[in-house]
Design brief:
By secondary structure, the protein is an alpha+beta fold. It has four domains: about 230 residues, Serine Threonine Protein Phosphatase 5, Tetratricopeptide repeat; about 70 residues, 2-Layer Sandwich (Alpha-Beta Plaits); about 110 residues, Phosphotransferase system, mannose-type IIA component (Rossmann fold); about 100 residues, 2-Layer Sandwich (Hypothetical Protein Tm841, Chain: A,domain 3). It contains 19 helices and 19 strands. It is globular and about 75 Å long. The chain starts with a strand and ends with a strand. About 5% of the residues have low confidence.
Length: about 550
């Protein structure tokens, strides 16, 4: 059956790309040497795609119960990437997505039954993406993400297959081009790495291939790409690096990175490009239709912002001082920072109150709406502390939390991420938190307490499906232990007892129960009695999760 690109596939692509960049984020950050060796390319790409993915999810939510059209979906993706673009590579990626959206959005049919595009349209979209990205960069340099994007478009052209075949060809072409980047850009060759932005684009194209084929595409690591490039005749590769005094990524380059969104017309942006080009380098201006994302490296950050004011209305202004530990996005209030704070994602008003009483700054985890990294960064800022311990309390938030922690570190905050996978693990960590202890010692103690806590949960099956405990039907009660379905039942109390017995069979000293809003107190009384009679040395503590909480959370320490 031909693989076509439709709205559902675009949404899957965004989610897979976000997951791929989350897994590769630290690796990409570690090889970031061009245009500035500031170690944030992976984080910036993740934040850019996160914004695109959220915009697509919002488009779907806004059209329920129907689906948005393909044109609406790709435009949402491009707009989300534009307003959320971070850094040089993130800004270029947003333009690549915009270029694709221009072609796909124009070709998509409004007829819901035929609202998809085929391989030839995807070929043209990849070509438009590469060309528009080149046009957005004031002084394109080979051996960068631009080269990888062009190679992907070249490999896809003339494929003659469906979207799956085109995406696979583009991905493989991008991989080959990435391998060659150390021989095209001298700074990469000296460092022995491939281009970080190109590595991120390979992950995004791998996600597109996976979304269309249903297969998992695993990209080679950056180290593998670099080793392959050297082993394939690196010494004979063409070196076309632009080397000059004060080149980006070398000593003596501009002191600041300036990024802002700009509302302006095309003529004003043309004048702005010329002015910013005289002020600095690494100039990238992307967007259109009155909204632009401006990125430039300069010594005079004020002049770069002033140029934006003269061109139109700049907002979301972000100025980063290279080599410094802080990025200035807002002016901190003139109050002294606390030494240490806890920031935690919590499901339910009851737990939010519990965490707040313990001194934590909380971020709500709404059902079906996981917090974005920006919400976590805002919470870290609200905590206003020199040191922050971050508790995501959800395995699905690990990449989001890691990206938020990295962003906060650029603002001078020392952040430790404890990979809690449930709110009950966070409770255990909070219980041993001692702010007067050395930061590292406190983090170790909290991590140990969270790691020693097994977690369980009761949920209602939404549909028939296969689980590790067998086949469940819609409406069945599911008992999960450490994220896997262990019990299938029909009633809350009995299912909870089965889960408790399995968890306590491995030992335990304390049981924590967090009841959802719809669970009566009699269930808690029944479970407390069962633990008291069957496990004499085990204590039980009960909390109310309140609205937006899970049906029942169980922790065993």
């Amino acid at each position: 059956m031909p693989q076509n690109l439709d709205a559902v596939a675009v949404r899957a692509w965004c989610r897979l790309a976000l997951d791929a960049l989350g897994r590769a984020r630290e690796e990409i950050d570690s090889i970031n040497v061009y245009p500035v060796a500031d170690g944030d390319t992976g984080t910036n790409l993740y934040l850019t795609v996160e914004s695109a993915s959220q915009a697509v999810d919002a488009a779907f939510t806004g059209h329920e119960p129907a689906l948005p059209s393909l044109a609406e979906t790709v435009r949402a993706m491009a707009h989300g990437a534009l307003i959320g673009a971070r850094g040089n590579s993130g800004t270029i990626l947003s333009q690549l997505l915009r270029g694709m959206a221009q072609v796909i959005g124009a070709e998509g049919e409004p007829d819901r039954e035929a609202d998809h595009v085929g391989g030839r349209v995807l070929e043209r979209a990849l070509r438009q993406a590469a060309e528009s990205a080149y046009q957005a960069v004031a002084h394109p340099v080979e051996g960068t993400v631009l080269t990888v994007a062009t190679a992907a478009a070249d490999a896809a052209t003339g494929t003659g297959g469906d979207c799956g075949a085109v995406a696979r060809a583009a991905y493989e072409g991008a991989c080959a081009a990435l391998d060659a980047t150390p021989g095209q850009l001298a700074v990469l060759g000296r460092a022995g790495v491939v281009d970080a932005g190109g590595r991120g684009l390979v992950a995004v194209l791998g996600a597109l291939t996976g979304a269309l084929s249903g297969e998992t595409v695993v990209s080679k690591s950056a180290a593998a790409h670099a080793a392959h490039a050297k082993g394939a005749g690196h010494a004979h590769a063409r070196v076309e690096a632009v080397e000059c005094e004060d080149a980006p990524g070398e000593e003596g380059g501009p002191a600041f990175e300036v990024i802002y969104l700009l509302e302006a017309d095309d003529a004003a942006v043309t004048r702005l490009r010329a002015r910013l080009d005289r002020l600095g380098d690494s100039l990238v201006v992307v967007g259109g239709d009155g909204l632009w994302n401006v990125h430039v490296h300069v010594d005079d950050a004020g002049a770069a912002v002033e140029a934006g004011v003269e061109a139109g209305r700049p907002h979301r202004i972000r100025i980063t001082h290279f080599g410094a530990d802080d990025a200035h996005t807002t002016v901190q209030p003139p109050r002294e920072r606390a030494q240490r704070a806890i920031v935690a994602v919590v499901p339910g008003e009851g737990l939010a109150g519990l965490y707040s009483e313990a001194g934590a700054t909380t971020v709500p985890a709404r059902v079906g709406e996981p917090p974005a990294s920006g919400e976590l960064v805002d919470a870290i800022r609200r905590a206003h502390a020199r040191e922050v311990v971050l508790l995501p309390n959800d395995a699905e938030l690990r990449h989001t939390a890691a990206a938020a922690a990295e962003q906060a570190r650029t603002e001078g905050v020392r952040v430790a991420l404890i990979p809690t996978r449930s709110a009950v693990q966070g409770i255990a960590a909070l219980a041993v938190h001692e702010p007067d202890r050395r930061f590292d010692e406190d983090v170790v103690a909290m991590t140990s307490a969270a790691g020693a806590t097994r977690y369980g949960e009761l949920a209602v099956a939404e549909r028939q499906s296969w689980t590790m405990a067998g086949i469940c039907q819609a409406g069945d009660m599911l008992g999960l232990i450490d994220g896997d379905v262990a019990v299938i039942g029909s009633e809350v109390a009995r299912t909870a007892v089965s889960v408790l017995d399995r968890m306590l069979s491995a030992g335990g000293e304390m049981v924590t129960l967090v009841l959802g809003e719809s669970v009566p107190d009699t269930v808690a009384e029944h479970l407390e009695k069962h633990v008291r009679e069957a496990y004499l040395a085990v204590d039980t503590v009960v909390y109310r999760g309140g609205r937006q909480s899970a049906l029942l959370l169980i922790g065993v320490e």
